[in-house]
Amino acid sequence: MIKFLLTVFAILAVNISFSQFNEDAPWIKELKNNISESELQQRNKKQPFSFLEVQQSFNEYWETRNPNKKGSGFKPFKRWEFMVENELDAQGYLPTAKTVLDAWTTKSQMQEASRVAMADESNWSAIGPFTTTGTGSWSTGQARINVVMIDPNNAVNGTQNWYVGAPAGGIWKSTDAGATWNPMSDNLPQIGVSGIAIDHNDSNIIYIATGDDDAGDTSSVGVWKSTNGGLDWSETDLGPNGTNGTPTSMNDIYTHPTISGVVWVATNNGIYKTINGGSSWTNTQFGNFNDIKLNPANPDIIYAVTSNRFYKSTNGGDSFSLVSAGLPFSSGRLVIDVTPANPNYVYVFRESSEIVSIYRSTNNGTSFAARTTSISEGDTQFSAGQAWYDLAMGVSSTNPEEVYIGCINVWKSSNGGTSFSKLNNWDSPNSAAYT
Question: Read out DSSP for 92-124?
Fold first, then answer.
């Protein structure tokens, strides 16, 4: 019994950090290139590579590169490697989402049995620290945040609900526009959150895409749903016990702006859609998708990207078509954004061999034109060495020409992406634009 308990707690102790590492990482791409398509199809679709294969490919990749270069992407992998290398099964693979959920369920049942059998006589109280002070260092200890979501019904019902999702820290909720925060997912089997979606007709209904989509700090256990504003959560059909299984990585998740129960989520196994609030899901497009965006004026038009392909749907995500007009056919990573200031616009931010560029469509994603093919300011390059890990873009909701992009630093364009100015430096913690 003691050994069983130790096994259960060991599985849960490292925050369930077991996902296959980011598929857009260059060493993963090289690993794929060295294996034939037929062999890949014969392998486990959820985990096609063992830990040792990934580790070896990483080491070979860095034999000819400088890991000390700022933003190289070396450290995120080493953190992941440290967390998972002692949690492998006999064949050298990471625990599945079903294994994790079963262990968590067993642990929860045992805790409940212990609670009933024995009164809690602990007497803990928090003594701090309750505040943090900047040290002047380039890094003052902040953690990553994967997603920020403001309740779309705030203006209607007078609330000030904000939500954030952390790679390994769960979903947090503020009811006073960010002044104070409370954790809402401490009792989930895995508390990484990369996507948050709120029902536009009922703020109590919330969906989260679990796991860390960037660096694999936590693996996905599927899409989970709350019907009471985040107090309690339940597994949807896109999870360990569902009919579709569980993708190891999830990213953007959106609810339909007028129809409750319609939700889309981007995963490394494709784009999934539900029309019944998660009771069942349909995989409407296969592939490793990083981002999806809804057209601000027409939710039947949906855009999605893999690391090197742009797709468009005109039927509410029931099917997608590849769009290549005006876009390059080779990329390391793509991210996209749209703006209600001009719903016809779609921006694509591209990285290839550490060179970044911007493309824009003015006809709802039917075709694109390059805005700029290399971004720099004076002698300062964009520094896209770890673009596979933290590339980002945002377009103003009131000015369609105002574009923000980021990797190590944040850059701004006021002319629709034809030129950019750098707003900050990563090693200047006292500046207003510090990241």
Answer: S-PPPHHHHHHHHHHHHHHHHHHHHHS------
